[in-house]
Amino acid sequence: MTVFKTSMRNFFAHKGRMALSAVAVLLSVAFVCGTLVFTDTMNTTFDKLFATTSADVTVTPKAANNNEDPQNGKPESLPASVIDRAKQAEGVKSAEGAVSSMNVTVVDSDNDNMGSTTGAPTIAGNWTKNDLRSMEITSGHAPRGPTEVMVDSDTADKHHLKMGDELRTIAVTGDFKARIVGIATFKVTNPGAAVVYYDTATAQRELLGATGRFTQVNVTADAGVTHTQLKRNVSAELTGSGPALKVQTQKELSDENREGIGEFMNVIKYAMLGFAGIAFLVGIFLIINTFSMLVAQRTREIGLMRALGSSRKQVNRSVLFEALLLGVVGSVLGVAAGVGIAVGLMKLMSSAGMNLSTADLTVKAMTPVVGLVLGIVVTVLAAYLPARRAGKVSPMAALRDAGTPADGRAGWIRGIVGLVLTGAGAAALFTAAGAEKAADGSLMLGAGVVLSLIGFVIVGPLLAGGVVRAISAVLLRAFGPVGRLAERNALRNPRRTGATGAALMIGLALVACLSVVGSSMVASATEELDKSVGTDFIVQGNQRIVPQAQKAIESTPGMEHVTSYKLIEAELTSPDGRTEDSDVTAADPTYASDLRRETIAGELSAAYAKDSMSVGSDYAKKHGVKVGDTMTVAFKGGKTAKLKVAAVTDDDVAIDKGSRYMSIATMEQYVPADRIPPNDIMFATAEDGQEATAYAALKKALDPYPQYQVRDQTDYKQELKDQIGQLLNMVYGLLALAIIVAVLGVVNTLALSVVERTREIGLMRAIGLSRRQLRRMIRLESVVIALFGALLGLGLGMGWGATAQQLLALEGLKVLDIPWPTIIGVFIGSAFVGLFAALVPAFRAGRMNVLNAIATD
After folding, report:
1. What are phi and psi of 770, to 5 degrees?
2. Which residues of 486-520 are buried (b: 16+ CB within 10 A; e: fewer)?
3. Which of 104, 136, 572, 576 could serve as 124's disulfide partner, Cβ 3.0–4.6 Å?
4. Model pLDDT, residue 405
5. What residue segments make up the domains of the chain, in order of their start?
6. How far apart are CA 548 and CA 174, in angstroms?
7. Where is this region: Disordered (predicted)?
8. Among candidate residues 755, 743, 769, the one with its CA nearest the CA of residue 845
């Protein structure tokens, strides 16, 4: 009980200082809980959608894959006779055919794309009774003929569509127009897909290119018949002659659909949790510093407790109990804040086009448990070392000294361990940079990052002396005596300075590493484009290029040649008898000049001859393939071909690495016309001197097809730079959480340091130090600590980034580019971070009463 009372008294006596540490715990726990609530809510949204839209039992072609676009742009389908056979199964109440395709683009009369901007699909199909499970018609009526279409209300609201507006649907089978005659509203949350409905005959003709066929059959069970029983009965009825079919219950189809987004959801979840882990790591330094300084300030008090009979365990327990209180308060508030963060993320996603309703907000029981346990355990563990140090203080030593005595032997051991770990990390990074395989090098890179980071954290107090003096020599000498005082204050407690700088070091090391990697990727890709790409224009989009768009490209005036480029699925068997599934590239012979690929054997032009192909050098080395060998290629949906290897291309590239080339004419011999895929991408080269005119003409030709973009090499480079820049900005935004926690650490360190030096500050003020000079001294001390952490972090991060670039060089990204403007900007920004962190501590120090400060014991 005495320990409890003492801990409570000390906790509330230092509530202001504890608050900053509690904020660090709060932010970290909030980010964890917010991530869990956000991803759980998204899962709930999709689960409800899939469960509502799925029939009791669904029959689809066995070759169909819900998570992939069809190879030829037209969904796999089954004959209408399947519906009649399904109706005959026992326990079937009704069965109806449905048509659905996601390989479409819908535009309005101004050619604006009606699809989602978040990656959600545009879904076109026929209106069925099964759709009434998830939607209701709120305006107009369902489509009744080829010129009528119905849209979902979310798409109508987003694009300001109204009854009577004309929409054009672009499919691989052609374009067709229809006017809006109805608007349907989702009964559950629609995560962002655009949905359009046509009558059945129009959907079959325009989306499938055939009549009397459907993409699936929706079967409804009679009362009292379970989905499992219904599946068994329908499967038995459909067994026998006819196409290969897949029969699934509502749950099985929902689970399959969920798997399609599961990987994407996991990437979001674990990436955000990773950044939360970084924030926790930074918060550990803040908590350690807080309790270390609180213990040092209460040394006399602890000594008195020990003299009055308190045992080491009781002192230790008292400090840990304070940490427990801090962890509980910070974690409870963090859990609540996490729900707020999740709601904020949902609103942000909704504004970007992915609709997430707060009605689906999901807070699982484990979420607050995880947040509380994580926050409390981390806080208590972080406070363990200061608590242990407090327990070791002897009564007499505590009564004599103003602070805890330094353990010289522990400092040397710490330094040796830090140097050993740093050396091991450097060795691992060096090994990773020289790796011959990216997979092996990645493991060593990970080990090097972890070991060097831990090593720098441990050895930080040893580095503080030299680095702080170097920074001070450049920065503080101009401020005279005040600058020297700031330098001495930063050097007074190297362990504290090292821990405070380490908190900032972690976030900035990651910023520097990712900046180097991103900049190197852009520089490498730019060099590769300059060296390898010979074409003038590249046309591609988020869908394969439909034939009507291909025709528009090919008929554009001013072109020397236009190249088609298709990817087709196949099963390759090498001369050594090993078989693997792979994409094969079928292109026009002009592609050899559009993309200049070096060969290590044979001539690439020969690979475009009849019944010939090329392979990449990595594949050739793995399977012992050489020019003149014969490859067995079994085309999906087509025949099996025996093709001669006419060239082996060098895979030491970033573009088309590992591609196997053949001519479109060769592919057409073995793949039926209705199975040949549309172009994935097209290339165009202008006639000499006609580049500008041809560029404008090509853009105009594709105006009716907004889903495709025309880029010259300058556009392509800029887009690559923008994409990587956007990704890095997102990462920097997430890392900002760790940097905020680090700033709180600097604020807390300075605030506690001011209290620790109360008498000293009073004496300096008494002998003539002005308030302005005092505040400047504290601000300069903060700047030096911040720059110390920045210097270590940026140096460490550039080392990580340079090593990562060496691994990327194995994938063809060979240029190391250090983004000096970013690095210098971050370093300068760190000085402003230091200034900002010192505002409150400096202000409080300046307001300190001189006589009271001197009288402080």
Report:
1. -80, 165
2. bbebbbebbbbbbbbbbbbbbbbbbbbbbbbbbbb
3. 104
4. 47
5. 1-55+264-405, 63-243, 463-534+712-857, 544-706
6. 7
7. 61-80
8. 755
Residues 311-322, mean pLDDT to the nearest whole number: 79
- The 3-state DSSP class for residue 1 equals coil
Report helix, strand or coil for 139: strand
Looking at residue 69, its pLDDT comes to 58
**Beta-carbon-side half-sphere exposure of residue 297 (alpha carbons within 13 Å):** 22
List beta partners, residue 195: 123
Q: Which amino acid is at 659?
A: S
Query: Contact, 328 vs 11, CB < 8 A?
Result: no
> Would you state the pLDDT for residue 733?
81
* Cα torsion 317, 318, 323, 325: sign: positive
Helix H or strand E encompassing 22? helix 15-53
Local confidence band at 415 (pLDDT 50, 70, 90 cut-offs): confident
Q: pTM value?
A: 0.81
Report residue 288's pLDDT band, with 50, 70 and 90 as the boundaries. confident
C-alpha closest to that of 507 among 35, 24, 26:
24
Would you call 735 exposed, middle or buried from its count of C-beta atoms within 10 A (0-12, 13-18, 19+)?
buried
Tell me what pLDDT residue 169 has. 96
Are 121 and 80 in contact by the 8 Å Cβ rule? The answer is no
**CA 12: distance to chain centroid?**
41
How far apart are the C-alpha atoms of 243 and 82, rounded to whole Å? 9
Segments in 652-768 forming alpha helices (H): 664-670, 691-701, 713-756, 758-766
Q: Would you tell me how many other CB atoms lie within 10 Å of the CB of residue 731?
A: 17
The string of pLDDT tens digits covering residues 250-278 is: 999 988 888 877 777 888 888 888 888 88
Helix, strand counts (H, E) of the chain: 26, 24
- pLDDT tens, position by position, 86-105: 999 999 999 999 999 999 99
Q: Say what the alpha-carbon torsion angle 179, 182, 185, 190 is, to the nearest 10 degrees.
A: -20
The residues, ordered by sequence, that sit 6+ positions from 653 with a Cβ below 8 Å of its Cβ are 528, 532, 597, 812
CA distance 436 to 428: 14
DSSP 362-398: ---THHHHHHHHHHHHHHHHHHHHHHHHHHT--HHHH
Interval 478-497 mean pLDDT: 86
Element (H, E) at 429: helix 408-433
Token duo for residue 850: 């001189």
CA distance 449 to 803: 10
Model confidence pLDDT, tens digit, residues 659-681: 999 999 999 999 998 889 999 99
Tokens of 611: 């019944």
Residue type, 707: Q
Q: What is the CA radius of gyration of the chain?
A: 34
Say what the alpha-carbon torsion angle 741, 742, 743, 749 is, to the nearest 10 degrees.
110
245: its two tokens: 């079919």
- Residue-level pLDDT at 331: 92
Q: 3-state class of 804 per DSSP?
A: helix
| pLDDT band with cut points at 50, 70 and 90 for residue 404 | very low
* Sign for the pseudo-dihedral over CA of 817, 818, 820, 826: positive
At 186 the three-state DSSP class reads: strand
Measured from the Cβ of residue 160, the count of other Cβ atoms closer than 10 Å reads 8
Range list of H helices, 539-597: 547-554, 591-594
Map residue 226 onto helix, strand or coil.
coil
pLDDT on residue 124:
96
DSSP-derived letter for residue 658 is T
Which secondary-structure segment (H or E) carries 327?
helix 312-352
Q: Does residue 336 have a pLDDT over 50?
A: yes
Paired residues of 407 in beta bridges: none
Helix (H, G, I), strand (E, B) or coil at 452: helix
Q: Exposure of 397 by Cβ count < 10 A (0-12 exposed, 13-18 middle, 19+ buried)?
A: middle
